[in-house]
């Protein structure tokens, strides 16, 4: 499999506020679903069901501070990924969500300005390692924290599992 | 320059003389805990293609979120995990009827030791800092990596130190203290950081109460939280990001309540007006231990749960259940009209055994009041201490235990 790209093009599908918790992203009642693709059906189901309908493959979800706070449930990141989200941009992330996203191969981009510089429908170009976001629709460029090399390695492999799979296959 | 407790433990676990905040280290994991989501871990582990887990003696699996199985789907998950446990020879497995809530069981069965690095596929794994362990929550995929390799990378956190002195007023507990702190620091106030609690008021607390502090530190984003243990502590001269001083008597004059829909939306009880309550929940990894059931029994003794309200009590584990039965707490709670659920997570995560309808209000000793956490997205969860939960059950509205237990009221 070719490495995942480090420059992403896509459309903003939703702009959310602060402290979007994991119960909002993926309700606890569906935690017994362990088929990853199926989790996508319940993304934002209680609070923002329209996001699930609007989200096109490669779309970006934008938020303010502390995205993904709360539970360690990986389904919050899994549902976003399998619903087709290309990346999540937020002013900051809760730490377990951040790790889960990178481990699943879903780019999580820290950008304090994304919230004020993006509107639903805007076209973005995100440079994951260069640390910048270009809002093509409004022709503005704003900064993002460049991903650290460890995260880049995991994202390029498609996530922690393919990464470890390669590593252990190499050893065997 | 000394190290904080988090720095000390991560230095040892990564084979270094010293580490500093924001450095990345690869640490050996001493204990890896999962609940039902071991099924997700198992699937990811199978994909990696390593045939055996790194060390079956260091993995603990405890069913708690949906026990006994409430649906065929869950039953299938449970079955798959049991088969995996047997195939891999995982030494410590607590099935239905043998354990209870993962954090309570891990603690009461003595799995956690001071100085350990503990990871769990549950965010409230921070609870185990009450035993001097660096304990933190991770996702299922990451746990599959731990099962394969026994190591995990960490960014060394900076540490916030919180010193609590003074005497608690009657009816004020660890729950009120930690809600007060979360109200001050906010839900992201300790994000990516470790928290060290100390001070004379903390040192007088029971272990169960210290677990409440470490458990709820997660709700301000903490990566790990510690209360003092004799075996290991921070170095003199350790460097802290900030130090907070709290006087329990002065700062906590009354019970603290976290209002919907955020754990940092904290108000003193008297700031809330009359609030009719439909459900009261006493349980969870935060407040379902023996001392919590004891205080609730003391509040409801000789009284009845208000007709408008139902009181659901969930002992945190089989052992807590049996002790509470032997000591008569369950008898007292049932005589007042409480229903006793089997040990486990119960309605805390909104999957079964006490779900809320639209418009309903719940006062709960659990740890999250997010939108839809306990059922309908239009229900309202107020987080409070066990004493306030019990008092509210009797009053049928949010109530101070003092108002229920004062002599004038009980003899009226
Ligand atoms: S009691 Fe609630 S918070 Fe604790 S482990 Fe269970 S679901 Fe999670």
Top keywords for this entry?
heterodimer, A: 172 residues, alpha/beta, Aconitase, domain 4, globular, B: 412 residues, Aconitase, domain 3, Aconitase, Domain 2, 3 domains, five-stranded parallel β-sheet, 18% strand, binds iron/sulfur cluster
Helical proportion of chain B, percent range: 25-40%
What's the total number of strands of chain A?
7
Q: Please provide the count of β strands of chain B.
A: 18
Catalogue the unreliable spans of chain A. Answer: none
Strand content of chain A: 15-25%
Q: Specify the structural class of chain B.
A: alpha/beta
The pLDDT mean of chain A sits at 94
CATH topology of the domain at 10-122 in chain A: Aconitase, domain 4
Largest sheet of chain B: 5 strands, parallel
Question: Alpha-carbon distance between the termini of chain B?
Answer: 62 Å
Distance between the termini of chain A: 19 Å
List the SSEs and their pairings:
The complex is a heterodimer of chains A (172) and B (412).
Chain A: E1 7-15, H1 22-25, H2 36-39, H3 49-54, E2 60-63, H4 75-82, E3 87-90, H5 95-103, E4 108-110, H6 114-117, E5 123-127, E6 132-135, E7 140-143, H7 149-157, H8 160-171
Parallel strand pairs in A: 1-2, 2-3, 3-4
Antiparallel strand pairs in A: 1-5, 5-6, 6-7
Chain B: H1 5-13, E1 24-28, E2 31-34, H2 38-48, E3 59-62, H3 72-88, E4 92-94, H4 102-108, E5 117-120, E6 134-137, H5 140-149, E7 151-155, E8 159-165, H6 174-185, E9 194-198, H7 200-203, H8 207-217, E10 224-226, E11 242-247, H9 248-251, E12 256-258, E13 266-268, E14 279-282, H10 284-287, H11 290-300, E15 310-313, H12 318-326, H13 329-335, E16 339-340, E17 361-364, E18 380-383, H14 386-395, H15 401-405, H16 407-410
Parallel strand pairs in B: 2-3, 2-5, 3-4, 5-6, 8-9, 8-11, 9-10, 14-15, 14-17, 15-16, 17-18
Antiparallel strand pairs in B: 1-7, 12-13
Helix pairs in contact in B: 2-5, 6-8, 11-13, 11-14
Bound molecules: iron/sulfur cluster.
């Amino acid at each position: 499999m070719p490495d995942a790209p480090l420059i992403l093009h896509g459309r903003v599908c939703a702009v959310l506020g602060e402290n979007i918790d994991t119960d909002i992203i993926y309700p606890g009642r569906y935690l017994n679903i362990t088929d990853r693709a199926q989790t996508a059906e319940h993304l934002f189901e209680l609070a923002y069901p329209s996001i699930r309908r609007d989200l096109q493959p490669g779309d970006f979800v934008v938020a303010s501070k502390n995205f993904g706070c709360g539970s360690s449930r990986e389904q919050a990141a899994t549902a976003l990924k399998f619903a087709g989200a290309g990346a999540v941009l937020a002013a900051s992330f809760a730490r377990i969500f951040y790790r889960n996203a990178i481990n699943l191969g879903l780019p999580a981009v820290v950008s304090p300005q994304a919230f004020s510089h993006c509107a639903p429908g805007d076209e973005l170009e995100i440079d994951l390692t260069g640390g910048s976001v270009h809002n093509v629709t409004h022709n503005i460029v704003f900064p993002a924290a460049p991903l650290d090399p460890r995260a880049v390695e995991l994202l390029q492999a498609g996530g922690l599992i393919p990464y470890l799979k390669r590593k252990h296959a190499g050893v065997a | 320059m000394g190290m904080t407790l988090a720095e000390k433990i991560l230095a040892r676990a990564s084979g270094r003389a010293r580490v500093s905040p924001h450095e990345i280290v690869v640490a050996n994991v001493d204990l890896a805990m999962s609940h039902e989501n071991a099924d997700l871990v198992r699937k990811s582990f199978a994909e990696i293609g390593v045939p055996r887990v790194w060390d079956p003696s260091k993995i603990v699996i405890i069913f708690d979120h949906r026990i006994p199985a409430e649906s065929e789907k869950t039953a299938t998950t449970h079955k798959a995990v049991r088969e995996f446990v047997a195939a891999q020879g995982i030494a410590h497995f607590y099935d239905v009827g043998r354990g209870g809530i993962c954090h309570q069981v891990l603690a009461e069965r003595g799995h956690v030791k001071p100085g350990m690095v503990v990871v769990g596929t549950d965010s409230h794994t921070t609870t185990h800092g009450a035993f001097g362990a660096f304990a933190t929550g991770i996702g299922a995929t990451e746990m599959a990596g731990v099962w394969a390799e026994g190591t995990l990378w960490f960014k060394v956190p900076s540490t916030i130190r919180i010193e609590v002195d003074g005497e608690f007023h009657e009816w004020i507990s660890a729950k009120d203290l930690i809600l007060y702190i979360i109200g001050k620091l906010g839900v992201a106030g300790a994000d990516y950081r470790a928290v060290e609690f100390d001070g004379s008021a903390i040192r007088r607390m029971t272990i169960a109460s210290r677990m409440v502090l470490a458990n709820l530190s997660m709700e301000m984003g903490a990566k790990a939280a510690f209360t003092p243990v004799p075996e290991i502590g921070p170095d003199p001269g350790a460097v802290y990001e900030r130090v907070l001083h709290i006087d329990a008597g002065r700062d906590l004059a009354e019970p603290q309540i976290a209002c919907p829909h955020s754990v940092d939306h904290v108000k003193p009880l008297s700031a809330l007006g009359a609030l009719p309550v439909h459900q009261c929940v006493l349980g969870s990894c935060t407040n379902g231990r023996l001392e919590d059931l004891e205080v609730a029994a003391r509040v409801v003794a000789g009284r009845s749960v208000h007709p408008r309200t139902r009181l659901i009590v969930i002992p945190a584990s089989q052992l807590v259940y049996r002790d509470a039965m032997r000591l008569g707490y369950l008898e007292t709670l049932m005589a007042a009209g409480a229903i006793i659920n089997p040990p486990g997570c119960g309605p805390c995560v909104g999957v079964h055994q006490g779900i809320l309808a639209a418009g309903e209000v719940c006062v709960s000793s659990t740890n999250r009041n997010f939108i839809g956490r306990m059922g309908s997205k239009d229900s309202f969860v107020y987080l409070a201490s066990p004493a306030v939960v019990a008092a509210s059950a009797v009053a049928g509205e949010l109530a101070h235990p003092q108002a229920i237990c004062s002599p004038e009221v009980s003899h009226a």
